[in-house]
């Protein structure tokens, strides 16, 4: 199957110039309990943090993700896609970018929290080797929903690397990542 070259995504490191658009996506995704603009400015100065933006060919910011790298572990702090760009593999492209950077930085494990009701996100994380290892009761302030705590095994294990490489290759059928 040929690559859909009609739809390209450019993933880059977030800059302060991106924050205004990121906060709008954050508000759309998470409602009144979203991160503030000042939170993102603080993250730009956090030595543990790395944030990424996904933009279209015409430079429209459509998604973002963030992680904290702590020793040999990465914690995915946030990820969101503009509603009209959901189900176009952009969130998946960000997960791939995060994993590639983890490999480059010798990060062995990834973790995150996700709403128990967010089945599409949970399925995406499972596809990339995350497993639920517990819950945080009442984690989300807006409705007191529980969060699943998800972890990967060591991403340098051959089984994990093979799965990742297969998923990354399959993703190229749907989206071109620059």
Description:
This protein is of the alpha+beta class. It has one domain (8-177): 3-Layer(aba) Sandwich (Aminopeptidase), CATH 3.40.630.30. The protein contains five helices and eight strands; from the N terminus they run βααβββαβαββαβ. The chain has helices at residues 19-30, 37-44, 90-104, 119-127, 158-171, and strands at residues 8-13, 49-55, 61-70, 73-81, 109-115, 130-136, 147-152, 176-177. An eight-stranded mixed sheet has the order 6-7-5-4-3-2-1-8. Mean pLDDT is 92; it is low at 1-5.
Give a summary of the structure in a few sentences.
This protein is of the alpha+beta class. Helices cover 33% and strands 30% of the residues. A hairpin with a 5-residue loop joins strand 2 and strand 3.
Tell me the layout of helices and strands:
Blueprint: E1 8-13, H1 19-30, H2 37-44, E2 49-55, E3 61-70, E4 73-81, H3 90-104, E5 109-115, H4 119-127, E6 130-136, E7 147-152, H5 158-171, E8 176-177
Parallel strand pairs: 1-8, 4-5
Antiparallel strand pairs: 1-2, 2-3, 3-4, 5-7, 6-7
